[in-house]
C-alpha cells in the first residue's frame, strides 16, 4: 500500500484509505516501519547478509544446519528456525548429496581375497586406524579420468587421492604411497578396506600393504554398504564439487578436484558427525587433546606430607 501511494502521488491518502477500508493509523504505522524499521527487522537484514556470505563461501552447498553452525562458530547466536526462515526468504538452499549411479568395480575371480575386517562398522577411535579406499570415474570430453582416494574413518579426511587415465593397479598403489608419505602409520595398527576390484587384489598392492604392516580388508562387490564411507565420498565430490560441470580436458577436471578436496572439503567443510568441524579441524582437536593429556600425565607430583 505504501509503495502504491508513493508511486501514484496524485492519489489523496485519506480518500484512498477509506475506499480500501484501511484505517489511517495502520497506514501511518506502515510508513513509520518502512522509514524506521524495528530492531528485529534491522537484525534480520544484517543476519541475511551474513547468511548470504556463508552460503556463497561454501559454494552454495550449505543448508540451514551448517549455516547455523558457522554463525555459532563466529559468535553469532541465533535460532535455527530463524536461519531457516531468512534463507527461505532470500531464496537460499543447500545441496543434498545423491547416489551417483553404478559402480566401476571389476573383480578378478582368480584372486585371493582379504577377509572383511570392518563389517560395515566405519568408525575408529583415532587417526590411521581404518582407511577406506575406492575408485570412481569422472567424465571429460578428452576421455575418462579415474579418481582413486583414501579416506580416514576417524576424521572423514581424504588422506590421499590420485587421478589417471587408466583404472589400474598403478593408480591405487600411487594413492597408497601418497598416503603413507603424508601420515604416520604404526605397523600392525592400520586396516586398509576396499572392495573386490582387481586393482585392490593385485600383487603390487597386496605386497605393498604387507611391507607396510597394514592389514587388508575387503567388502563385497556391488554392495555400497560394504564400502559406504568411500561411496559417500563420491556422492559428496560429484554432487557438491563437480555438479553440472562439463570438463573439456582431464587437467581441467583434476583442478576442480583439487579445489574441492584440498581447498574446501578437508580444510573447511564442516560435518555434523564431527561436531560441526572440518576433517582437518577435527584431527587438530584430537591431537591437541592428546598432547594436553600427556602433559598432565607427565607433570611431577608433589610428595605426600607425612606426620
TrEMBL record:
Record has Transmembrane as a keyword: no
Keywords, in A-Z order: Plasmid
InterPro entries referenced in this protein's UniProt entry, alphabetically: HTH-like_dom, Integrase_cat-core, RNaseH-like_sf, RNaseH_sf, Transpos_IS3, Transposase_IS3/IS150/IS904
PROSITE patterns, per the entry: INTEGRASE
Membrane keyword on record: no
Ranges of residues in domain Integrase catalytic: 123-287
Top-rank taxon: Bacteria
Signal peptide: none
Alphabetized Gene3D superfamilies for the sequence: Ribonuclease H-like superfamily/Ribonuclease H
Reported function: Involved in the transposition of the insertion sequence.
Entry protein name: IS3 family transposase
UniProt source species: Streptomyces cathayae
Amino acid at each position: 500500500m505504501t509503495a502504491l501511494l508513493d508511486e501514484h502521488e496524485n492519489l489523496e491518502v485519506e480518500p484512498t484509505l477509506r475506499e480500501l477500508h484501511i484505517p489511517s493509523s495502520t497506514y501511518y504505522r506502515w510508513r513509520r516501519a518502512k522509514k524506521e524499521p524495528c530492531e528485529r527487522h534491522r537484525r534480520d537484514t544484517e543476519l541475511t547478509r551474513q547468511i548470504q556470505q556463508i552460503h556463497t563461501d561454501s559454494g552454495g552447498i550449505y543448508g540451514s544446519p551448517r549455516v547455523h553452525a558457522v554463525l555459532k562458530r563466529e559468535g553469532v547466536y541465533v535460532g535455527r528456525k530463524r536461519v531457516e526462515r531468512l534463507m527461505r526468504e532470500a531464496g537460499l538452499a543447500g545441496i543434498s548429496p545423491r547416489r551417483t549411479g553404478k559402480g566401476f568395480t571389476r573383480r578378478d575371480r582368480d584372486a585371493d581375497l582379504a577377509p572383511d575386517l570392518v563389517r560395515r562398522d566405519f568408525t575408529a577411535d583415532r587417526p590411521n586406524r581404518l582407511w577406506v579406499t575406492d575408485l570412481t570415474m569422472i567424465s571429460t570430453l578428452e576421455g575418462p579420468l579415474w579418481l582413486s582416494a583414501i579416506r580416514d574413518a576417524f576424521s572423514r579426511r581424504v588422506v590421499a587421492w590420485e587421478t589417471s587415465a587408466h583404472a589400474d593397479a598403478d593408480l591405487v598403489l600411487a594413492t597408497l604411497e601418497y598416503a603413507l608419505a603424508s601420515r604416520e602409520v604404526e605397523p600392525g595398527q592400520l586396516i586398509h578396506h576396499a572392495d573386490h576390484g582387481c586393482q585392490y587384489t593385485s600383487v603390487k598392492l597386496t605386497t605393498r600393504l604387507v611391507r607396510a604392516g597394514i592389514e587388508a580388508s575387503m567388502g563385497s562387490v556391488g554392495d555400497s554398504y560394504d564400502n559406504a564411507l568411500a561411496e559417500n565420498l563420491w556422492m559428496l565430490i560429484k554432487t557438491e564439487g563437480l555438479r553440472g560441470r562439463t570438463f573439456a580436458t582431464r587437467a581441467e577436471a583434476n583442478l576442480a578436484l583439487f579445489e574441492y578436496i584440498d581447498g574446501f572439503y578437508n580444510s573447511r567443510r564442516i560435518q555434523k558427525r564431527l561436531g560441526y568441524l572440518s576433517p582437518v579441524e577435527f584431527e587438530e582437536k584430537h591431537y591437541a587433546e592428546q598432547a594436553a593429556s600427556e602433559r598432565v600425565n607427565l607433570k611431577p607430583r608433589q610428595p605426600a606430607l607425612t606426620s
